[in-house]
Amino acid sequence: MVALFTAAQLAGCAVTSTPTDPAAPPVGISASTPASSGTAPSGTAPSGAGSSAPAPLARSVPVRLEIPAIGVDTPVMQLGLAADGTVGVPPIEAHAPAGWYDGSPTPGQVGPSVLLGHVTVGQFGDGVFLHLSRMKPGDRITVLLKDGVSAVFSVDSVQTVPKAQFPTASVYGNVDHPALRLITCGGVRAGNGSGYTDNVVVYASMVR
Predict the structure, then answer these.
(1) Residue 26 domain flag
(2) Which of 29, 132, 134, 179 is the most buried (most CB within 10 A)?
(3) Which of 12, 9, 18, 1 shows the shortest CA–CA distance to 167?
(4) How far apart are CA 94 and CA 110, in angstroms?
């Protein structure tokens, strides 16, 4: 089971999180208005799931991420929790890759696999997830795993929310199918160097 988090807020695209009892029920989700389509409720099957739903994959860490709709083709690094309880983020440098949070399932396992990336990388310009908010339901995402298998996901929904209302349960809560969450910053860039006002979250389900 995937641990739920009592708080999750991206500050400079870092996820502030406090692990709690894995068996705890999902926490309440703030009724913020998505900028695009709404989130898929935690614990529900993806659209079209049933006898045709693909079988879960064996655990294997992701090594590459491809999103043709927004021109993403990037290596994937592993991210853990920092000493202050925040999820680590890729480095602020030119060509910084996306990062997979190693406290989440690997892509293709049952549960929400979480990948993060920067929208901008300081003086180096655009980040790998610059256009994440442009994704639409039905867009395909391919994750190449270390064992050579590729997991293909279809976008269910895209959500932009204020950081203070980060949808913890929807992002990290247990689901009954292989799912993917892509996270970056969004909204207005603050002039005081504190990052962005919002987060963009893409919810996707494995289809192949």
Answers:
(1) no
(2) 179
(3) 9
(4) 33
CA distances from 78 to 25, 60, 103 (A): 28, 12, 10
Q: How many domains does the chain have?
A: 1
The answer for residues whose C-beta is within 8 angstroms of residue 104's C-beta and 6 or more apart is 2, 111, 112, 113, 114, 172, 181
The answer to whether residue 164 is domain-embedded is: yes
How far from 80 is each of 60, 91, 115, CA to CA, in Å? Answer: 16, 13, 11
Q: Which residues of 163-172 are buried (b: 16+ CB within 10 A; e: fewer)?
A: beebbbbbbb
Question: Which residues form the domain of 139?
Answer: 10-21+56-206
Q: Is 208 exposed, middle or buried (0-12, 13-18, 19+ CB in 10 A)?
A: exposed
Share above pLDDT 90 across residues of the chain, in percent, rounded to a whole number: 65
Distance CA 146, CA 156 (A): 25
In this structure, are residues 66 and 141 in contact, taking their beta carbons and an 8 Å threshold? yes
Rounded Cα distance, 184 and 13, in Å: 6
Local confidence band at 11 (pLDDT 50, 70, 90 cut-offs) = very low
- Position 190 scores a pLDDT of 74
Q: How many helices (H) and strands (E) does the chain have?
A: 1, 11
The domain that contains 133 carries what CATH number?
2.40.260.10
Average pLDDT over residues 182-200: 86
- 101 close to 89: Cβ distance less than 8 angstroms: no
Rg of the chain's alpha carbons, rounded to an integer? Answer: 16
pLDDT at 189: 83
